[in-house]
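User: Before I run my own analysis I want an independent prediction to cross-check against. Here's the chain; please return only the structure tokens and, at the end, one sentence I can use as a sanity check.
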Amino acid sequence: MLVAREDRSTGLDVATVGPGPKGKHRALPATGHAELFTRFAADYAALHSDRAIAILQAGCTTAGPELDLAALRASGVDLIVSGVDDDCRAARAAVARRPELGSATLGELRLVPLTPRSFDIVQCSMLLHRIDNAELVLGRLVGALRPGGLLMLRTADRQTAAGLLDRKLPSFLRAIGWQAVSQGQPGPFPARYEPITSAHGIEAFVTRHGLVVAHRGACRAPGRAGAVPLSRRLVAWLSGGRFTCSHDELRYVIRKPEHPFARVLQ
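Assistant: Structure tokens:
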């Protein structure tokens, strides 16, 4: 159960998940690719069992099960969770339908107050490709991380056939397509797909900010793993493979070094 309260250290409304018994984090079961974020969060919490773990869900209306807060709580992790999202029609509709998002902050993400070095984990799920000034926003999220903290990033990839279709189709066709595949998820959201929403863009950002990639991967969007629709195959073929149909999304776990001058060559 999420209990809303205000956290002055972060400047946001938060929801407390837990608590679990401190110092008694039970091992989570073996997981697949979809639960990778949860495994990284559990490992981080085990190293900081003397305090609650502060998590910021940026893009909270599209945050999926890749970070399983209930499983972390069940394993004994004490969490403080805050949610922010862009103030758009789809996000407002999602908040209105989901009581657990009642404490979320919706607003201009370049201006939402984020106290520097106040979060252990930032989960940025399916946000970057649907907002303007995505690199600036991501920089603010990294600034809100404590040294040693984790940025868990999930985004649609602009270099895929699905990404090209999403940003080029007329809005009425996007709405029809969304209804067919959304399974009740909020949307459709705007399709911005700035250059950072690609593997090259993300890794260039990582290099510029002195961050460390702990995991990188690509996968199909949930519900689309069984088959690739003909439209995506056609786009991939017509583009000569420039826009791939092998995946839809990118997933990264990125670590903020303990020391600002610490770098790991990969």
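Sanity check: DSSP finds eight helices and nine strands in the chain.
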